[in-house]
Amino acid sequence: MIKTRYLIFFLAAMFIVMTFLSFYFYWQENGASLIQETQVAKQKGTEFAKTNDQQACLEHVIQNSSDCRDTNCTVELKNFLTACFEEAEKSPGVCDEVPTAQDYMGKVSWTVSTCRKAKIRNGNCTNIINEIPLLCERETRF
């Protein structure tokens, strides 16, 4: 009879191999389009930033997140937000109430309340604007 630890080791190894292969094949099939979508989103964010400030970037992304239901949309909006926030004119006070990137509970509370104030009940909104604390910290470093 096979020892339990060998069976567990074999199953764990199979899980790792299958996970790797699934990501590999997914990337082979979708990698080019994901890279292109990322570049397009960053371009749109930079273009939007030319005529808007950081607060407008944040509000634009929050409003667009209401229709966002899949991972591709979330990634697109995060890239848009990052490019827009970094290139836009600084908004006084946009980072004042934003918690630090290391304050997990503060980030959760801030993202949820910000999305609720905008009347967006979709979970992707909080996931997308979760980038703001990091962007605000980057801004203060430079």
Q: Which stretches of 5+ consecutive residues score pLDDT under 50? A: none
Radius of gyration: 20 Å
Mind describing the biggest β-sheet? none
- What's the end-to-end separation, in Å? 64 Å
- Share of helix among residues? over 70%
Domain module tally: 1
Q: Got a strand count?
A: 0
Protein structure class:
mainly alpha
Strand portion:
under 5%
Secondary-structure element series: HHHHHH
SS summary, helix count: 6
Mean pLDDT: 90
Shape: elongated
Topology:
Blueprint: H1 4-49, H2 54-64, H3 71-87, H4 104-117, H5 123-129, H6 132-141
Helix pairs in contact: 1-3, 2-3, 3-5, 4-5
Explain briefly what this protein structure is.
With 142 residues, the protein is mainly alpha-helical. The protein has helices at residues 4-49, 54-64, 71-87, 104-117, 123-129, 132-141.
What does the model show?
This protein is mainly α and about 140 residues long. It has one domain (about 40-140). Helix content is about 75%, strand content about 0%. It has helices at about 5-50, 55-65, 70-85, 105-115, 125-130, 130-140. Helix 2 runs antiparallel to helix 3, helix 3 (about 70-85) packs parallel to helix 5 (about 125-130) and helix 4 crosses helix 5 (about 125-130). The model has no long low-confidence stretch (mean pLDDT about 90).
